[in-house]
Design a protein that fits this description.
The chain is globular. The longest helix is centred in the C-terminal third of the chain and has 17 residues, at about 85-100. Helices cover about 25% and strands about 15% of the residues. The protein has a single domain (about 15-110), classed as D-tyrosyl-tRNA(Tyr) deacylase (D-tyrosyl-trna(Tyr) Deacylase, Chain: A). Helix 1 (about 25-40) crosses helix 2. The chain has helices at about 25-40, 85-100, and strands at about 15-20, 40-45, 50, 60-65, 105-110.
Length: about 130
């Protein structure tokens, strides 16, 4: 939600918090889109994580989140120097979303750079950090 209005949502699928590193490129964004689209994380008939978004007819809610690159190893206040600059981050976020769409993944988004209230119903204790 942004300013009290729902701007994106998904049902069965993935909430993807997207951060761009200062050294990332469009090729990195496309590789990440490919990885997310093909990630076998949904349970099959035996309950094993073996199915992809396409297999479960799922979608993605992609939320920009530069703070994922916050580094608090030396201080209590995180440093964000590893995050991409605003314009680069926005370009790479949009490239990631476009990469998912090219692969046939239904995608909804938040609003880049906005203060967002994000709600999640986590179906199982699974959170995965992906980096390319």
């Amino acid at each position: 939600m942004v300013d009290g209005a729902v701007v994106g949502r998904c049902g069965v699928g993935l909430l993807v918090l997207v951060a761009a590193h200062r050294d990332d490129t469009e090729a990195n964004a496309d590789k990440m889109a490919d990885r997310v689209a093909g990630l076998r994380i949904f349970g099959d008939a035996e309950g094993k994580m073996n199915l992809s978004l396409a297999d479960v007819e799922g979608s993605v809610l992609a939320i920009s989140n530069f703070t994922l690159y916050g580094d608090a190893t030396k201080n209590r206040r995180p440093s964000f120097i590893e995050s991409a600059a605003y314009a680069d981050g926005e370009r790479l976020y949009e490239a990631f979303v476009a990469g998912l769409q090219r692969r046939g993944v239904p995608v909804e988004t938040g609003v880049f750079g906005a203060h967002m209230d994000v709600s999640l119903v986590n179906d199982g204790p699974v959170t995965i950090v992906l980096d390319v």
